[in-house]
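Is zinc ion placement plausible here? Inputs below.
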Amino acid sequence: MENRVLFRDVDVIATMDPHGSELHGAWLTVEEGKVAALGQGAPPPGPYSEEVDGRGQVLTPGLVNTHHHLYQTLFRAVPGAQDAELFDWLVFLYERWRGIHEEAVHVSAVVGCWELLLSGCTTTTDHLYLFPRGRRNLIDVEIEAAGEVGIRFHPTRGSMSLSRADGGLPPEDVVQSHDEILLDSQRLIERYHDRRFGAMVRLALAPCSPFSVTPELMRDTATLAREAGVLLHTHLAETDDEQEFCLRKFGRRPVEYLEELGWLAPDVWLAHLVHLSAEDIRLLAAADVGMAHCPSSNMLLGSGIAPTAACVEAGMRVGLAVDGSASNDTSNMIREARQAMLLARVQGGAQAMSARTALWLACVGGAQVLRRDEELGSLEPGKCADLVLWDTRGLEFAGAADPVAGLLHCAAQYAELVMVNGVVRVRGGRPVDEELERYVSRHREIAAQLT
Ligand SMILES: [Zn+2]
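Reply from A.M.:
I modeled the complex. Tokens:
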């Protein structure tokens, strides 16, 4: 009886199972944090600890965000960065980012994770690569914040070791030494990485980008990750500038450079992948590398259009991502799925990506990228109860003939109810936690101090 929840009379359940099943006038039960059963017609008899009325609503799996920088929630719409391209944008923002501290990371992670939850995202990664001198425990702090919010969390221990003095992009006081980075990576894996089914926290290792770390750190991080059995992540092929940088410094294009470092492998996922040749896509697909597609960020920074449809077609694992809030500047995951659909169509025509494909990428695609598709991404018995109820009775959906496609066509923005691991975190479109308001005002104060 404890934690036995029934969703009943749901207009449509978009299961995202391998058959793409959609159930009409449907029900779904949750027991002990997992999807127990689902079907059409009359639900199994109770008792239930809670019954949720799904009339006028669509039920989907929780969305999975595969790339983020939560601390950047403090750096939205910053004058001076608003209209810059990646390298200028970075050089300008490093000077402000270097001020981050433990409280800034905690508060921005709480705010960013709530924003994600409200937009239907139940699992998020984070890529924290900036450790100003003396600020060692920032990953510990964000793990605590994500736990407070109740989102499933995949922090990646980022790193920067190539400062301006050594031909890199970041300033001296935000990079760390090779040994310091590897020791802390090891510590974090031992302390937090949970390998069990349904884990709420899993670690990955993530040197920041080709222009901020040394080749030695890329290699040694991969060795450490493989010994520990955790995934690897980095930014790649985001801009033309990066390509020129790699050709000049390493004599290789970004994908070739990664291949040489032993990074084209099934335990790797890469953010952006905008500037890819047909040969790059072939190499990435053959190596079973995953992709975190960040359409809004790529548009805002004018980086280009990632060949997402071609990557999907080549058999790559592709997920979606909001990217950091200094280059989006929102953490709205359902809106990001809409952006992915629209941007693919700008590039390849109206049939390049359907709403259902974009939603599938946001759910199953993301779970595949994080190697968790046995547990997450679809609504099937035995999988984790990460699910989202979308109310389609509002103004923006009025007259929508197909409510599932309507989530993207009509631009859904916030979920009605969000459950993570069987626990309701958003109800009636509101966070269940009343502390959020306090965090938002503190977030504004810290942002004003840092920018
Ligand atoms: Zn990024």
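Short version: The longest strand covers residues 4-14.
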